[in-house]
Write a structure and sequence with these properties.
The structure is a homodimer. Helices cover about 45% and strands about 15% of the residues of chain A. The first copy, chain A, contains eight helices and seven strands, in the order βαββαβββαβααααα. At the A-B interface, helix 4, helix 5, helix 6, helix 7 and helix 8 of A face helix 4, helix 5, helix 6, helix 7 and helix 8 of B.
């Protein structure tokens, strides 16, 4: 099966990394989602790796395709393919991909769902060429995974963005926070996040919280985020 | 100077770890902040490691003390000691401490401020016994550092708490997110948080955002946090 022909439709981070992870094993063709001009209709598999808003539109344009069609989205149900295709599925790699950053693909969990057992097996076979963590899932569970990953990755990164902005505005470098950031991440491998919490809100230290809110007066949006997070932590531990 | 006598007043995480980090080098005495009963008045240094609300009260009870007095707080100004003491300062280790977790003390940045140069040198000497990252700072900059660390540590951990709760409620384990969490942390060592951002809000993918908000209907507080964060990311990148 190693001579499988696979179309990857997309120009974003996920498409770029899937190509890198699979191109040594399979005959991969990267397809521009705007034109679809170099799409090979006789391919075995087509992976659609575009923004959620665009998946259905692209799928509708490929209704002639007889191979296995799948998308790589966390939040789009598999049923987006049910109308036009016989063999279809989802191939969801749970990782944050940036174009120029190297990643150890073997650790990426891949969540598979498909219309039938043969298609599940085929998509798992493809995933097994780079990952050692492959799971069956359904569209609802996958959506919950994606939601959790938005909190644990995208929103965490935005908090790093906020911290970095505050430091830069005081001529400080985010490097002074790296040991703290690494320890915060390391902790949750051995301790539940509930037990790992520390800081002013955990202690209900209103004096420090108010002094921080004062210091944030010139950052209206960050102040709102600080306030919402502090209140939720206080509510979690003290009410 | 290795036979310095140091009082550490506190029973919390920071006091516990400072004792661990320093007890092999100095003559350390841990003092109960509620009673102060075993306090040694002839000590060289007294480190007050209690919640910000309680620092001033304890300092006032120790006005007879002739050694160097310092607190370990990120947000309390050094001037809390100015009324009653001649030699005073701040000894602020920027790390998240949990009682039973081992930490590589050598990487912890310690921020020092003091009333005079001799006291700065003495506090730096103490810090140098465990850390290789020691900085001069003032009360305003230290407050900004503490504020940034609340975002990058406490609030990050609370996002892990939220992700964990969503996963647990769907019989999933936070371990599936560990590669993603580690990659998110690893990225900021080589990429600015601004450039590292990914996800639905970064793409202004309103379809996914709304579907996530729907999925959060039973978690009122988490929904509010999701919404505030999504809006701030969209504003950062799309407005």
């Amino acid at each position: 099966m190693n001579n499988l022909k696979i179309e990857i439709i997309g120009r974003g981070n996920v498409a770029t990394h899937l190509n890198k992870a699979l191109c040594d094993t399979f005959d991969i063709n990267l397809v521009n989602p705007r034109t679809l001009e170099n799409f090979r209709a006789n391919s075995d598999i087509c992976l659609i790796s575009v923004s959620d808003n665009a998946i259905e539109n692209i799928a509708n344009q490929l209704s002639f395709f007889k191979g296995v069609i799948a998308h790589t989205s966390g939040s789009t149900p598999m049923t987006v393919f049910a109308k036009n295709f016989e063999k279809y599925g989802v191939f969801y790699p749970l990782q944050t991909f940036s174009k120029d950053i190297l990643i150890d693909y073997s650790k990426i969990p891949v969540f598979i769902e498909a219309s039938d057992n043969d298609t599940i097996d085929l998509l798992k076979f493809v995933a097994s060429k780079f990952s050692t963590h492959i799971y069956d899932t359904d569209s609802n569970i996958r959506k919950q995974l994606h939601l959790a990953s938005v909190f644990a990755c995208n929103y965490v990164n935005h908090l790093y963005f906020i911290a970095n902005k505050i430091l830069q505005d005081n001529s400080l470098d985010i490097n002074v926070l790296i040991p703290l950031i690494e320890e915060t991440t390391r902790k949750i491998k051995t301790t539940s996040p509930e037990d790992a919490q520390t800081g002013p809100a955990r202690r209900n230290d209103t004096k420090t919280i108010n002094s921080h809110l004062d210091a944030l007066s010139k950052y209206t949006d960050f102040k709102e985020i600080y306030d919402v997070m502090a209140n939720n932590i206080i509510k979690t531990y003290h009410k």
